[in-house]
Specification:
36% of the residues lie in helices and 29% in strands. With 132 residues, the protein is of the alpha+beta class. The chain has one domain.
Length: 132
């Protein structure tokens, strides 16, 4: 009986978390779409973890990307993420070039940005930025 009650409470808690996260991380601010442009920073090991990261990556299957010019973590769909990884960072190091992207996103009502879309990817001659 105790186990059933525990499971029921756990499922209710997880359901409430999912609904609340969906509201917080998906309610748009209805402002204009913002565009950002900058060089992609590749991460060798992803050590960043917070509730938004858990919601986007584990529950919805999105990926994160950071730009060198912005201190913002943008969440992009797997399809856009695969566009970034067509050429592996190790190959970019050998070619001595990096990736410059143009990202468009919509601000959220509770702060931050919604799921972003990569509009354009360009190769640029620079040292690639890989952080651990």
């Amino acid at each position: 009986m105790f186990i059933l009650n525990f499971l029921l409470i756990s499922f209710i808690f997880i359901g409430c978390y999912f609904v609340l996260s969906f509201i917080v991380y998906r309610t748009p601010n209805f402002k204009k779409i913002k565009c950002f442009e900058g060089e992609v920073v590749f991460k060798a090991i992803e050590l960043h973890f917070d509730l938004r990261d858990f919601f986007e990556k584990n529950l919805l299957g999105n990926h994160s990307v950071m730009l060198a010019s912005e201190d913002i973590r943008f969440y992009i769909s797997k399809k856009d993420w695969l566009k970034l990884w067509e050429i592996k960072p190790q190959q970019l190091i050998k070619m001595d070039c990096g990736l410059n992207v143009k990202i468009s996103t919509r601000p959220l009502f509770f702060g931050g940005y919604g799921v972003s879309v990569i509009d354009e990817i360009k190769k640029i001659e620079t040292k690639i930025k890989i952080i651990k």
